[in-house]
# Entry
Amino acid sequence: MIGSANLNIMIKAARKAGKSLVKDFREVENLQVSVKGAGDFVSKADIAAEKILKEELLGARPTYGWMAEESDEIPGQDPTRRWIVDPLDGTTNFLHGLPHWAISIALEHKGKIVAGVIFDAAKDEMYFAEKGTGAWMNETRIRVSGRHRMIESVFATGLPFAGRSDLPETLKDLARLLPACAGVRRWGSAALDMAYVATGRYEGFWERRLHAWDLAAGIILVQEAGGLVEGINADDNIIETGEVICANEPIFETFSKVVRG
# Structure
């Protein structure tokens, strides 16, 4: 699969940052960690990965804007294009030695996500998609699951931690969903949750209170893999609200009704 110049820049940047993170992951116990917030940590590895991504992406496309987790937003000379980057989605997993974390890079053009890369460096799984060209994992074209029945379906979400205010709402979601499905997973990386929907490992995913960089790349991955993506409130702009629901097409209507109550 040969993508556009922009997609190739994104994949190259993800691999370079992934190499740095894998090296640090092997020495995870020696990382110096600063507390960024309750239950939310940032490491030297995280910051180093973002530096690599910033150098690679803005070095190649210096006029584009920049939005990322660990640094200030930069408005680009080209106001229509912006990189949206999470250098390490699943930081808590990373710091606990759990090999489930990813680099997420999206390219936004005129308010729409037109390309996305999610790199699971620990497993060497590179997910990528570009508008109109399908979704891929390494050399393999990927599609959403073909399951039609909720009772056979597995879903993913994030569970609020450390006293976050959306816990009661999420517990209500689970109370409605768990009796109707085959299971719900909470693996700690929204980017990989959406990648797993795109590759058919999950039938669907929903979560509230995410950031743009958590889900931007996942949006186009799911869409190009044949899935549906909306805000939990259907008309919302997902990038702005950070609330998302996605699933394969046969399940989406029923699943979204359950989540939306």
